[in-house]
Structures are given as structure tokens and as C-alpha cells.
Amino acid sequence: MPKVPVYDMTGKSVGEMELSDAVFGIEPNKSVMHQVVVNYLANQRQGTQSTLTRTEVRGGGRKPWRQKGTGHARQGSIRAPQWRHGGIALGPKPRSYRYTLNKKVRKLALKSAFSSKVLDSDFIVVDTIAMDEFKTKKMIAMLTALNAGKKPMIVTPTADQKVYKSAANIPGVKTSPVNALSVYDILNCGKFIIAKDAVQKLEEVYAK
User: Fold this and answer.
1) pLDDT tens digit sequence for 109-118
2) Which of 140, 160, 165, 135 is nearest to 152 (CA)?
3) Is 13 in contact with 3 (CB distance < 8 Å)?
């Protein structure tokens, strides 16, 4: 079982924690993580782009010149795609880019992302992450004490508005409850800072 130190919010080591091999000690599957990240980004797309076809642009109802005898190529409308201000041929229309992946694939990708953070020594366990008040200065002090660096991610056992709003104005910092984690966010962050109770919740759900 991989072991990681446990810190308090002042950066002081207060013990060690054994992590489950089934969740935090597997060989990261890069192919599966890539599939899930591509799926996540595809599902974020709004799909609202739209171009006008020749039937939707204004004008072009009259044939510009007669069919034969002018020396020009035959034309039926000045709004055909080859004309300036004409309609767009085969342009994008509103559509959904959303698709789903197998539940086992998503689960393996999450466990691979957790394990990669542990292997890279970017997994920081804090005994308790809690704020008495909405105070950005206290959150900055905690991140500095933990050597969080750039783009840290703070994970709490449940949604904690005091923690989230205290970190909201700090550039690069992302916060999330443990039940809303995505593979993209885990891989995209620098240090992964997680409360001890949240680690236990992850083991309960994913160690099966």
C-alpha cells in the first residue's frame, strides 16, 4: 500500500496515511485517461455554431442571366456557394457533441488519475480542510504552507461554501467536492490537495 504524509492546514506533518492499492496504487492507464478527457471536452461543447445555406441567405430568387448565349457560365442564383455573399455549402449546423462512455472505463480512468498523482508526489492529504469565515488570506496561507505551487486543486468531503469562496479569487486554484471530480480536472491541476475524510470516501466507492 502506498503511504503518504498527512498535514494540517499550517503545513505541519501530523502523521501518515496508507492508501488503498485498488484506488491509488494501480498502473495508470494512459489510453483510458485520454478517452475520458476527450469525452469530457466533447461534452463541454455547446454545439451552437450555425452557418446560412443558400436557402437561408437573403436574395438570389431571380436567375442572374439567361441560360445560353451570354458567354458566362450558367447560373441559377447569385446566392449559390461560389458567389460572394452566397450561402455556405456543407457548413456547421447546431448539433450535440455529447456521447457516453462505459461506466467501467470512467472508473478505471479516475483510479488511474489518482494513482498518477500519487506516483508524481503531487498528492497531498490534509487532516481537515475547513474555514471559520470567508477569508482569502487564510486560504493563501494554507496553500503556501503546503507548497501548493501553481494550479492546485482542493478537494473537500462535502460542498463547503466557505472553502470555495475563500479560494475563488486566487488565480489558478480550483475547488471541488469529492463526488464531483473529473479526470480532466485531476490531470489538469498541479498539486492535488485532499481532505483525509474525502480520501476515505473515495476508497469506499472505488475500492470495490
Assistant:
1) 999 999 999 9
2) 140
3) no
Residue type, 141: A
Distance CA 196, CA 156 (A): 9
Give the CB-side neighbour count of residue 121, counting CA atoms within 13 A.
3
Beta partners for residue 3, in sequence order: 18
Could you tell me the pTM of the whole model? 0.82
3-state secondary structure of 27: coil
Determine contact, residues 17/6, Cβ cutoff 8 Å: yes
What per-residue confidence (pLDDT) applies to 131?
Answer: 87
- pLDDT of 47 reads 94
Instruction: Kindly give, in sequence order, each residue whose CB lies less than 8 Å from that of residue 21, ignoring residues fewer than 6 positions away.
Output: 1, 2
What is the Cα–Cα distance from 167 to 120, expressed in whole angstroms?
Answer: 24
Q: Do 139 and 5 contact (CB within 8 A), yes or no?
A: no
- Residue indicated by cell numbers 496561507: 141
pLDDT in tens, 9-64: 888 888 888 888 889 989 999 999 999 999 999 999 999 999 999 999 999 999 99
